[in-house]
Amino acid sequence: MRLSVDNLACRRSGRRIFANLSFGLGPGDALAVTGRNGAGKSSLLAILTGRLRPDAGQIAIADVGEASLPECLHAVGHRDGLKSSLTAGENLLFAQRILGAPRLSPGDALERLGLGHAHDLPVAYLSAGQRRRVALARLLVCARPLWLLDEPTAALDTASQAVLAALMAAHRAEGGLVIAATHQALGLSDATELRIETAAAAPVTDVTEDWA
Amino acid sequence: MTRAVLALIARDLRLSGRVGGSGALSLVFFLMIVALVPFALGPDLNLLSRIGPAILWLAAVLATLIGLDRLFQADEEDGSLDLMTAAPVPLELVVLGKVTAHWLTTGLPLALAAPLFGLLVALDGTAMSSTALTLLAGTPALSFIGAVGAALTASIRRGGLILAVLVLPLMIPTLIFGVSAAQAASGGTVPFLVPLAVLAALTLIAAVVGTLAAAAALRWPE
Question: Containing H/E element for A11?
Answer without folding.
Answer: strand A2-12
